[in-house]
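Fill in residues.
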């Protein structure tokens, strides 16, 4: 599968460009599948790390067949184009001894290994940290799992949806009279992946700058979600308060809510003291703007219904665009609720180049064939060493020969490994 960006400095998948970002020279070995581990490795690859992704020769990462495919019949996931961008796909049968040896040799040269198997599986394969770090004491291993590498739940299967539930996110999401909904993306996996990246960067810094050795970064998906739960722990510890679902509002921070206009809804964050005053003046409620009881958030909380009612009444006769014009002019944080179609049409997304166009070809397609594909740009934006999309998600095993040759395998040896279904 090849990809070429529409910009003149784009790279072809057939000849991957070396990383030039801040992580150029960092070598990453990815042993994960689906979301958490691959997203962490993707992040590192976007900023210049060389990422070698190990896949099962029989089908590869299941994500290749998730959600919308191109071509629609028997094709590859469009998600794959972004989740596996900048990665080299190497097929290895981890059940074969020679396959394990390939992984051990790759790990010997790696700075970071990322895996998201169930705890204990790598050890059963003879690829645990104790083995891999013996020949590479500086190795950092990021281990992402549902419940972490220790504790009574470590052996349970744990996906992001379960982590969102156990970590507290689902309990506070939605309306009190309805069951907790799920967020429309795999947020638990993604939050865990970002924790893995942060942990890897701290471990590398310790190794490189403090004279430390390598180490394990143990990320439990539920703990990563739990880490985002703001004040729920001290509120319960001190007052026994259990935060509950409150719909679109944010209790204790007033006003912050979703409000209906004539033709849809907008989100307003008027919860800082000076912004609250500007908001009230903008909606012709000088009485509330100048009420000394409402000057600070703790005074506004008991009168939440009154404040929200005043905002709703003002919006009820206005369209979204009319409300945005007034509130933006008053320097009040406000925004429409975007669909992906809104993102494609928005000038801020365009100015920041947050959606980039590429050409993607499925295996077997000839030059000139394929499909134009839009991908999210790399973020965050670094001024001197920005990240980049050098190529899109590769075909299964596309880089096997190239990578094995760097380890000293000759063409005959690689052919034999392929015949024996080891690669």
């Amino acid at each position: 599968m090849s990809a070429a960006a529409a910009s003149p400095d784009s790279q072809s998948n057939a000849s991957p460009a070396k990383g030039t970002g801040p992580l150029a020279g960092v070598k990453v070995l990815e042993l994960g599948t689906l979301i958490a581990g691959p997203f962490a490795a993707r992040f590192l690859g976007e900023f210049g790390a060389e990422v070698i992704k190990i896949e099962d020769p029989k089908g590869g990462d299941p994500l290749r067949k998730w959600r919308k495919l191109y071509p629609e019949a028997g094709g590859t996931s469009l998600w794959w184009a972004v989740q596996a961008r900048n990665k080299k796909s190497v097929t290895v049968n981890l059940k074969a001894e020679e396959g394990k040896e390939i992984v051990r040799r790759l790990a010997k040269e790696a700075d970071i290994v990322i895996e998201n198997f169930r705890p204990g599986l790598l050890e059963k394969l003879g690829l645990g940290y104790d083995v891999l770090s013996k020949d590479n004491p500086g190795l950092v291993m990021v281990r992402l799992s549902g419940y972490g590498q220790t504790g009574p739940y470590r052996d349970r299967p744990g996906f992001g949806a379960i982590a969102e539930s156990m970590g507290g996110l689902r309990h506070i999401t939605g309306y009190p009279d309805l069951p907790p909904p799920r967020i429309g993306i795999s947020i638990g996996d993604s939050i865990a992946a970002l924790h893995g990246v942060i942990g890897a960067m701290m471990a590398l810094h310790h190794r490189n700058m403090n004279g430390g050795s390598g180490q394990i970064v143990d990320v439990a998906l539920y703990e990563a979600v739990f880490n985002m739960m703001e004040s729920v722990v001290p509120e319960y510890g001190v007052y026994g308060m259990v935060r509950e679902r409150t719909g679109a509002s944010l209790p204790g921070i007033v006003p912050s809510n979703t409000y209906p206009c004539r033709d849809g809804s907008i989100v307003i964050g008027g919860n800082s003291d000076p912004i609250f005053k500007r908001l009230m003046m903008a909606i012709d409620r000088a009485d509330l703007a100048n009420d000394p009881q409402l000057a600070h958030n703790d005074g506004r909380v008991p009168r939440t219904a009154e404040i929200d009612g005043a905002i709703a009444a003002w919006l009820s006769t206005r369209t979204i665009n009319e409300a945005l014009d007034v509130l933006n002019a008053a320097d009040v944080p406000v925004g429409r609720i975007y669909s992906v179609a809104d993102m494609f049409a928005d000038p801020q997304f365009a100015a920041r180049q947050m959606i980039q166009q590429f050409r993607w070809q499925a295996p077997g397609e000839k030059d000139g064939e394929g499909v134009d594909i839009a991908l999210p740009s790399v973020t965050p934006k670094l001024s001197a060493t920005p990240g980049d999309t050098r190529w899109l998600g590769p075909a299964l095993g596309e880089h096997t020969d190239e990578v094995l040759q760097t380890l000293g395998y000759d063409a005959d040896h690689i052919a034999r490994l392929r015949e024996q279904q080891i690669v």
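The chain has a mean pLDDT of 94.
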